[in-house]
Predict the structure.
Amino acid sequence: MKFSDFNMFIKPEVQGCPDFLIERSVRDSAIDFCSRTDVYMIEPESLIIIAGVNEYAVTLPTGTELNHIIDIYNDKKPLKPVSYTELEMRLGDETERGTPHYYSQRDNTDIYLAPIPDSAETFKVVYSLKPTATSTSIPDTIGRENREAITHGALYRLQMMSGQPFSNVGAAQMNNQLFEKSVRRAARQVKYGFAGGTLTCKPRLFI
């Protein structure tokens, strides 16, 4: 779904706003939405581990950048995510070799493992993406499913601009509230799945 496809839903609320400005606001809204919800996930990638190498990168589709590493696992055993500082401490002088048990990221490009692998093996990586600052579209499934949320986020950005004919602080605040509500809903849906199971808690007695 192209970001320009959102114009018809946004133009009536921001009369006189140039198309390029609408498209930029839609892109910024989509980046924010994907970054905070992890809704943009693709099929898990097989990560080929090489003995002696602990730095790896995943394959990124055109127009995207890595958002979050969600899981790395092998034979149903997940690696534990740790801070980059902790991973460096676990690497120590980098003489220890073994099966990796930990992973971390220094930024949103490479993945680092510890300890340094002592043999070749294959891990599965589950990760989320977000559009780049120069992208022009997002997958149809994400755009159509979250069209209202992204529209609210774009309208908030446009209506908060000062000195424009379409500036409207009151409407901007309302659109931001609707956007934030959609972010929370989508994040819960990604975390707990689409099966519709009821979330419950067990009461405990205070002692």
